[in-house]
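Form 7-S
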Amino acid sequence: MTAHDDFDSDVQRLWSLLFTIVLDGEKRLSAYLAAHHLTPPQFYVLKTLGEQGGRCPIGEIARLHHLTNATMTGLIKRLESLGLVTREQRAADRRSVDVILTTSGQERFLAVQLDLMEQVRAMFSLLSAEERQQLLRYIARYIEIVGAQFPMDTLQP
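Output:
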């Protein structure tokens, strides 16, 4: 086997491992969110609102999630019916609507976060301190390389 064969084999193995991790993560996240009566898109909206100080224009949330305003409006209406967000027209521009995270929305988001962190704690408890540090170094290095060499704004389908 040549070095090139090893490289191609390594590429295939990395792709397979990354794909497995992503699929597993999506399944686990969906299960945790379902236990909290949320869908992944609803959770990501709550996360975005938390990151934006609890208030954000609906169009900005749609842009951040690469969704149409109509699709985002449907998501927001469902979150509003659950009491997790409210909507408020902007005084300066009546066409613009802010989405506001409610106390219930913040509490639901934090409850999901706590459950997810418990899962990470359980996983990490299976590793030694050295293994945890090594895993974190490799993940950080992967993110550093991929982010620098293949920025998201340059990706094309």
